[in-house]
Amino acid sequence: MAEPTNINRYVTGHDENGHAIFSFEGSVPYTKVLEKSGKNALFGVPWKTDSFPSECNGKEDAAVIGGPLHNDEGTLCRVVEFPPNTSSPFHRTCSLDYGILVSGEMHLELDDGHTRKFVQGDVAVQRGTMHAWHNRTNEYARMIFVLVAAKPTVINGKVLEDAMIRDTPLYEDGSY
């Protein structure tokens, strides 16, 4: 099965008279991420911000390749292409995450074992929870995640930090 093609992004801004313009456009580069099965998921980051509230001035290109799963200082928009018959490792980000299933079918599993099936258009709102994603079909599934910086989750006085339970590196270069 062929890998999905990169998506395009269209970034707007303003000209010197305050009129809306397209200030940047192009495809979103993908980074290959190793799944537990040994297959590569594809991560693309159309945009990130390094402040909150976000800055809408300037024309800088804020796409990134690789890097942490979320941004402690702002927001991060990520596209994930899940290969057929794969699962992500269990993980938690200290962020408020909105996950929208754009195509395919996915299952979200929480660390207590409860699972929900997602179909196109379904949205997950994750608040610093330990979870894994499963594509149990023979087709790629595409999700878009928007991760927003958040205060840490505290349960019984214990701070729940970022976590990833995996036995393989995250990125092809061997890094996490």
Automatic annotation (TrEMBL):
Domain of life: Eukaryota
InterPro entries, per database record: Cupin_2, OryJ/VirC-like, RmlC-like_jellyroll, RmlC_Cupin_sf
Domain Cupin type-2 as annotated: residue spans: 79-146
Pfam families in alphabetical order: Cupin_2
Annotated protein name in UniProt: Cupin type-2 domain-containing protein
